[in-house]
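In line with agreed milestones, the collection of sequences with tokenised folds has grown. A representative record is reproduced below.
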Amino acid sequence: MSLIRRRKLTKRQTRQIEQNQTVQADDATFAEGVIVSHFGKQLDVQITNLPTVIPSLPDTDTNKHTDANKPLVQIGTIWRCHARTNLPMLATGDRIKLSLDTTAGLGRIEHLLDRHRLITRPDRYHKVKPVAANVDMLVIVFAPLPKPAVNLIDRYLLIAKLNHITPLLVLNKADLLNEQNSNDQDAIMQMIDEYRALGDQYGFSVIQTSTHTKSGLQTLSRHINGKLSIFAGQSGVGKSSLINELLPNANQSTNIISQNSQLGQHTTTTSRLMPYDAHHVDKGGIIDTPGIREYGIWHLSADDILLGFEELHALAGSCQFRDCHHTPNAKGCALWAAAMQGEVLPRRIESLTSLIDEAKAGQSAVKPSAK
């Protein structure tokens, strides 16, 4: 119901809310923090800056809480919070201002600070919702097993491009390469070489890691050090295991590959930011979230999706027809002409057209309910 009320606000009411939030944000009793976990209506916030006026504590004689379950008012402590009803939807990684109720040991998010970046996705009700905020790097993890889904990797590269986030491709479980048959091994190595060529052209890296042999972990750490990163990839590729190696206190649950399906099993159920420094979330960290697992694109246009395929976007304007669908038999398609010359990868064109078709199908499904 709150979403409906927000949609019916007049421009004047919206301006008044924004003005009220600006005034409230100057309140000397507000602390600043970062949302580190999202549980629906409740959120965990780690304090990054103390208020000018520290709220009085219940036990004024010892200046400490008598209840050990209540968080202290100090930098690095985590407070369970609710949010003001007139705030936009919040996401893990958001920087906010909050008021602190030291008696109840709870906080209330009063104001959303400026977002540098915001990853959003459509939900099952065809409404766009935030996934993660202020992310610097999207770590796209894949593995020899389960078999890499190239279309999914290209989807994540699209997300990174459209949200101005640096991607990093990580072939995890690299030790399993030696267990692949020669055809599968050659196919994976060829795929890595192709993505490295794209990365050299468009500014991202492709690395290999193994939590079993501990190889490549320092390289991965150097890439993400000091940044707020989000890990994405198929289930079973070892995202949680990688996070546990990088952050031993993260305690991410892991599942083995299903012997029957050879597919992974989902283990992450709540969006969670795990900082590199437990007491200073501003120094960066890793966000693990189920919100990135299945990223729908029905809200994107064909032109939006084309922007995510930079090497193809540069050619699309040269097609013979403006409404070219870039199918293999499309007359005068500049993309497939370039593919025939070995200038671009055919599978990248296939990923592009597949994503565009998916977006169009999703938009068509929305139209009846949009009347």
